[in-house]
Write a structure and sequence with these properties.
The protein is an alpha+beta fold. It has 4 domains: 138 residues, DNA Polymerase III, Chain A, domain 2; 126 residues, DNA Polymerase III, Chain A, domain 2 (Roll), CATH 3.10.150; 52 residues, no CATH class; 92 residues, no CATH class. The chain is globular, with a radius of gyration of 23 Å. This is SWIM-type domain-containing protein.
């Protein structure tokens, strides 16, 4: 615990045991020090906790309350997902926000329940904030007494969400940048709901601000569900700017986007899935990497070279590993499925973290991948040059390869046109073309695949 001081309330955070560059430690310490902007940090942590507790779609129950914290040597990162899986939040406390204190390396997860939220909410501009990231619990000490929070398991769905958000963000570019005053004005002007049946909302640059529109134009960024940015209101009074990131629009189809509020010594970023009704976990951006044996082997090599770097340059890794940049990116994607790599849009760079998941869990919980492996195991794929036929249930589907991309005659492909990753049929064809012939075992002797779902059961997770 931390001692109280005469200068006001003193707040300390402690986290559970975690992974460090030296391996797993029962009592690692990543950081201990006073933050340079305590009230801003408290509000930023509350914003991350707000997202973890929220369900922006079908608000029937609260989400998890267990943000992840990573020490990257020169910064601390706090991450969470909404209960519906459609909003990824990250608070980066940068070197200048750490008050000159040294930062270690490692990842763990912290619990943020009502007593801690109340302690953070009571912080004022004169109250010091001391973070101590390390031991087996999260403890908060103020003049009113101590609050101790225990670690809880991370939801499995977060693992797929972390991986898919990383893949989506790696395709983003900076599209717009506003000053602090313009950022506050724009965010407070947004509608609280999105009209149903009218398609996604977009924003386009308009002078020094952004203008909402119903159609994408030059420089447009998708804003699917403006109410999902509500957590940013926690920090608006301290905002020094707003940066908006997104991919080049693909026609009028909704896309993911990232909204970053810059703060004194910190950044708070919310990344939104393309539709409030679907989370990141079903986007399918990682499937190609999971189905590629080369990526699996490359990932083992790249993992050794990560070294808890706060900024990972694929070109540098490619040179050190003797691989092409494309193969390094595929390996990083695969590492992301185990929670070992994230992506920072502000620096256009990957970063290293270690989540408490085993390397095979993402594959065991991905129904499209499981179904594709079973199709391969059952010999359902027949190759004929650039064409392939896949027998699935009572139907046969034609998969064609053109320019390295696959398309299929199934309903999934007709609905999504590859925007949510390959269908199970195309994925099975990819595996066979690369030499796959059977389902692979996982620890415990269980097969990676269980069954092929009937075509009538195809849904958003496929």
């Amino acid at each position: 615990m931390l001692e109280s001081t005469g200068s006001g309330r003193l707040l300390g955070l402690e986290t559970a045991g975690g992974l460090t560059p030296r391996g797993a430690e029962a009592r690692p310490r990543f950081f201990a020090g006073f933050l340079a902007a305590p009230q801003v940090a408290a509000r930023g942590l509350l914003a991350v906790a707000d997202v973890a507790a929220a369900r922006y779609h079908q608000r029937i129950r609260p989400g998890s309350l267990d943000p992840v914290v990573t020490g990257n040597g020169d910064r601390l990162r706090f991450e969470s997902f909404s209960g519906c899986g459609g909003v990824y939040a990250r608070l980066d406390v940068l070197h200048e926000g750490l008050g000159g204190a040294e930062t270690g390396h490692g990842t763990t997860n912290v619990d943020v329940n009502d007593p801690l939220r109340e302690a953070l909410s009571r912080m004022t501009g004169d109250d010091p904030l001391h973070l101590r990231v390390g031991p087996e619990e999260l403890a908060v000490t103020t003049l009113a007494g101590a609050v101790v929070e225990k670690k809880v398991p991370l939801p499995d769905r977060w693992l797929r969400g972390f991986a898919e958000a990383q893949v989506a963000s790696a395709r983003f570019d900076l599209r717009a940048e506003l000053t602090g005053a313009e950022a506050v004005r724009f965010l407070r002007s947004l509608p609280r709901t999105q009209s149903r049946g009218r398609g996604p909302l977009w924003v386009v640059p308009a002078g020094r601000t952004l203008r909402p529109t119903t159609r994408p134009g030059p420089g447009a960024v998708c804003l699917p569900g403006p109410d999902r940015l509500v957590a940013l209101e926690r920090v608006l009074r301290h905002a020094t700017g707003l940066r908006v990131y997104g991919p080049v629009p693909d026609g009028a189809a909704a896309t993911a986007s990232a909204w970053e509020v810059t703060l004194p010594g910190m950044r708070l970023t919310l990344t939104l899935s393309p539709d409030p009704a679907r989370g990141f976990s079903g986007e399918g951006g990682v499937l190609e990497a999971l189905a590629t044996e080369d990526a699996a082997r490359d990932a083992e090599l790249i993992a050794v070279l990560l070294a808890w770097e706060p900024r990972i340059d694929p070109a540098d890794l490619a040179e050190r590993a003797g691989l092409t940049v494309e193969r390094v990116r595929a390996a990083l994607t695969r590492l992301g499925t185990a929670g070992r790599v994230g992506y920072d849009v502000a620096e256009a760079a990957y970063f290293h973290r270690e989540l408490p998941y085993d390397a095979d869990r993402a594959e065991r919980h991905n129904p499209r991948l499981l179904s594709a492996r079973l199709l391969v195991a059952e010999g359902a794929v027949e190759l004929d040059g650039e064409l392939a036929t896949v027998a699935s249930g009572e139907r046969r589907y034609r998969v064609r390869e053109s320019g390295g991309a696959l398309n299929c005659t199934c309903q999934w492909w007709a609905d999504h046109q590859g925007r949510r990753g390959p269908c199970k049929h195309a994925l099975a064809v990819r595996m066979v073309r690369r030499g796959g012939s059977a389902a692979e075992p996982v620890p415990g002797g269980e097969p990676r695949v269980t069954r092929v779902m009937p075509e009538a059961e195809t849904g958003a997770t496929w």
